[in-house]
């Protein structure tokens, strides 16, 4: 029974590893090697999160990042596969511009922003990254912009 519950949680969210870095720290006894991982998690139904984990090996870093991403999920209002209005936001020196696109246009975005938009469930959108090429900053600015999207009240 418990195994079935665990497997159902795994299949609910899709995970995508954006970046894995090997980090080396010099100490008196030599160098300590560890790994850091950046992971985006989403259910393709309007919920997406990002996590950054560190560990002695790659699998530990990835599992910590996935756990953090699932704790920080953001819900996005999506209408007919796109966002409701144009949004701009920044995080550090990274800026992002998100525009709704007509049906059938697809995701017009590059790099890590594209992954966040795909896992959130958005099908038609145009995005532009400005400023920094840092993956962490670009993902955070994209999430900030998606949180600014307001749903229309009738």
From TrEMBL:
Lineage top rank: taxon: Bacteria
Pfam name, any one: Ribosomal_S5_C
InterPro entries: Ribosomal_Su5_D2-typ_SF (IPR020568), Ribosomal_uS5 (IPR000851), Ribosomal_uS5_bac-type (IPR005712), Ribosomal_uS5_C (IPR005324), Ribosomal_uS5_N (IPR013810), Ribsml_uS5_D2-typ_fold_subgr (IPR014721)
All copies of domain S5 DRBM, residue ranges: 13-76
Listed GO MF terms: rRNA binding; structural constituent of ribosome
PROSITE patterns per UniProt: S5_DSRBD
Similarity field: Belongs to the universal ribosomal protein uS5 family.
Name this protein carries in UniProt: Small ribosomal subunit protein uS5
Provenance organism: candidate division WWE3 bacterium
High-level lineage: Bacteria, Katanobacteria
Designated gene of the protein: rpsE
């Amino acid at each position: 029974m418990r195994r079935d519950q665990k497997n159902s949680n795994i299949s609910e969210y899709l995970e995508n590893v954006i970046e894995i870095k090997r980090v080396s720290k010099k100490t008196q006894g030599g160098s300590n090697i560890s790994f850091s991982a950046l992971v985006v998690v989403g259910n393709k139904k309007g919920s997406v999160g990002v996590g950054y984990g560190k560990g002695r090996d790659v699998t530990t870093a990835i599992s910590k990042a996935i756990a953090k991403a699932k704790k920080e999920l953001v819900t996005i209002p999506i209408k007919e596969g796109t966002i409701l209005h144009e949004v701009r936001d920044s995080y550090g020196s990274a800026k992002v511009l998100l525009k709704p696109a007509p049906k059938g246009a697809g995701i017009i975005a590059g790099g890590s922003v594209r992954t966040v938009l795909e896992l959130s469930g958005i099908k038609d959108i145009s995005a532009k990254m400005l400023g920094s090429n840092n993956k962490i900053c670009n993902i955070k600015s994209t999430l900030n912009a998606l949180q600014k999207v307001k749903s229309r009240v009738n």
